Each structure stands twice: as structure tokens, then as C-alpha cells.
Amino acid sequence: MPPTFLIPEGLRVCPDGSWRVGDLPVAHEQGLRYLKARLVHEERGDFVVDGAQRVPVTIEGPPFEVVSLRVDDDHDEAWVFLDDRSAERIGDDALGMSETTGRFECRVRDGCFAALLGRGPHQTLLEHVEEDGGRFFLRAGRRRIPVRT
Known about the structure:
The protein is about 15% helix and about 50% strand. With about 150 residues, it is mainly β.
């Protein structure tokens, strides 16, 4: 069965997290979600993969955005919901501040990619963060998830 979408050559994720094909922005929301949902990291690099299609992607910035952060105190967990409509449990070394932008990010896809926290998730993080001896933690029930600063 042929792919439903022809993945364009020359894909890159800019330092600000925007996706481009050459100098043109990827502006179509459904197409962008399609690309993000199929982004994979391998030994040989980063690719958008759909069946037999394998198109390399140059990653210069966070390819994902966190659209929601949920803290589940009852289960000692915190979850990020990404703009490709996927969800991931936040790992112990996932949260931190970008050294280049100063904005909060979360490592996703087994730590291979960064996801920039949007305004709402950023506010949720601040509402649940606690400081202890100069270090910061996201509190999720009894669990304390370190936040790199």
C-alpha cells in the first residue's frame, strides 16, 4: 500500500523548534503532526519514517511541544502530552532548562528528543515545583522528579 503522504526532502527542525523544508515553514497542522508522529532516532541519525519512506531530518532544536503536563499525585507520576497527540510518563532525568534558550524542556522518545514546554505546561510545572538545597524538583505525590536548571 503506498504511503498516504509523501515526506518531503530537506526537512529540518530549527533551534526555535519550527519545522522547515528548505527555507519554507511546515505550516499545515495535520502534516506537521504526521511528521512529528513518525520521527525516530537511530544510530545513523534522525528520520521521518512511514513504511518504506525514510527521510532524514536535521535536528537543531526541540522537534516537539508539550501541550499539557499532568501531575498524578495518586500514582506518583507526571505525564507530558505532546503536539503529535502522544503522551509520555516523565522520567527521572527528563526535565530541565535549555542552556541556549532558558526555557523548560522535557526529554521524550526515550530521551532522544526535546519537547519545549508551552505556556500552560510551564505554569503547571511552576505550580508543582519545590526547592530543596538549591535544587528543584517536580512533586508528583511521593515522587520528586529533578528539574535541571
